[in-house]
Design a protein that fits this description.
alpha/beta, three-stranded antiparallel β-sheet, 15 strands
């Protein structure tokens, strides 16, 4: 009797599993799909071929498909994580300081990478020296003493805490890279540099105004004596401190980016320093997207952060605008400027597209600009449209850019696209001392 019961239980269990599996295969979407909830692409049904069976890749891919397309998967994931987070000892502050989409990458580690970076820096020296020989203005020769430059968080009790520190070696290397890019510009052109904190840094101030009085960065002061006369170094910490202290919504809480309002303040400061009279933010048409849970939340999907859900302010270009992918300096396919289908940070430009893109806003200014950026550039770029005919953009990270796809380095684009000014807008994920600054920028200059 016991054996018969065991057999029947096993049989019904096999039938149930088979039915669930059959429903999954019949009703699940076989194509890869982007999950905005998980900030990644869910696996699709793999192609069954003799080659994939022999290599064993089919079984692995099929397992990924079953895992990603399981019935009510999102609800089950949320439920299990909510249960786990209910017993988590992590505070909200600790969760908000966690990583999002972009993480800081330290200086180069392998010998091969170091050799590539050294070769790229030699190229930058050659470009800069050739240009400097033709200039009549005297280049600054000042050096900075000390072991490094820090970003400080200032407390109400009069003490301060170093958030992070850049070594002088990395600062000097960054200055050399900036000088190489500045040397590409025509006479009268300016290289603007703004290194922006992520929300993980900014919210240590913004969410604790009862205990913190401000912040300051020594980095920009350390850079300025080392760069060429046509390089303008802007401090995002100086630009954004007063707005943050006054309670303006400058950074998201559950996402590592600045808000469009914060991006506007940064663009306004850079443009006004160049002599432009800027358009007030109130002149832009606006809409708001509510209930946004960004990259910091998605990294761990901790239920404790749901109460901090953000809203996204979207400011539309003043005139009808267009955007295009660019390769080998030629326009390819059209891209979106404001993606109305998105309810997350991808609403800005539809996300990052490479190798290059440009946006144009219908103004006849006679000038073009290039922005070298990471994803922080997506929300700030449209604010430059009233001042430039075309705003070119490039993100050197590997998932968006290859030199082969680009058809040449920045030097070629500056000459072929008539670039007058360059803006470097990077978050502290890709700032001084990172792979982006130490390797990607030098090796893609020409």
């Amino acid at each position: 009797m016991r054996r018969k019961t065991t057999f029947l239980v096993t049989l019904w269990w096999v039938i149930l599993c088979g039915a669930v599996g059959a429903c999954l295969l019949v009703f699940a979407d076989p194509d890869p799909a982007v999950s905005e909830e998980e900030n990644r692409t869910l696996a699709g049904m793999p192609e069954l071929t003799i080659a994939t069976l022999r290599s064993g890749s089919f079984s692995e891919s099929f397992e990924n498909f079953l895992t990603d397309k399981f019935f009510m998967r999102s609800e089950l994931v949320d439920g299990t994580k909510a249960l786990r987070h209910a017993f988590s000892a992590l505070t909200v502050d600790e969760l908000l300081s966690g990583e999002g989409e972009e993480v800081f990458v330290p200086t180069l580690e392998t010998q091969e990478q170091q050799e590539d970076a050294d070769a790229a820096q030699e190229t930058i020296k050659e470009i800069f020296n050739e240009d400097a020989a033709d200039q009549t203005t005297e280049q600054p020769a000042a050096t900075v003493s000390g072991e490094g430059a820090s970003v400080w968080l200032e407390h109400r009790d009069g003490t301060k805490t170093a958030v992070f520190t850049y070594s002088m070696e990395d600062i000097e290397s960054a200055a050399q890279t900036l000088n190489g890019y500045a040397a590409l510009l025509p006479e009268g052109g300016t290289l603007h540099v703004l290194l922006a904190p992520r929300a993980q840094t900014a919210n240590r101030l913004a969410l604790h105004l009862d205990t913190e009085t401000g912040w300051n960065s020594e980095t920009e002061a350390a850079l300025r004596p080392l760069v060429s006369n046509n390089v303008s170094v802007h401090s995002a910490y100086d630009i954004l401190e007063d707005p943050i202290l006054s309670g303006e919504y400058v950074y998201f809480r559950t996402d590592h980016h600045w808000t469009a309002r914060g991006a506007y303040l940064a663009a306004q400061a850079m443009l006004e320093s160049a002599g432009y009279q800027t358009v007030p933010l109130g002149d832009y048409q606006e809409k708001t997207i509510y209930g946004f849970l960004g990259s910091i939340y998605l990294h761990g999907r901790n239920a404790k952060l749901r109460d901090l859900a953000d809203s996204i302010e979207v400011f539309y270009p003043l005139l009808p605008s267009k955007s295009f992918r660019v390769s080998n300096t030629y326009q390819k396919n059209e891209l979106t400027v404001i993606d109305e289908e998105k309810t997350n940070y991808l609403v800005f430009l539809g996300g990052t597209h490479g190798p290059y893109r440009y946006i144009e806003g219908g103004y006849q200014t006679g000038r073009n600009m290039l922005m070298i950026c990471d994803s922080f550039g997506n929300s700030i770029a449209p604010f430059f449209l009233p001042y430039y005919d075309k705003v070119y953009m490039v993100d050197f990270r590997g998932e968006y850019y290859t030199k082969l796809d680009a058809g040449g380095g920045v030097q070629k684009y500056v000459r072929s696209c008539g670039i007058d000014d360059i803006y470097i807008v990077l978050s502290d994920s890709n700032s001084i001392g990172s792979l982006y600054f130490n390797r990607l920028m030098p090796e893609n200059i020409d």
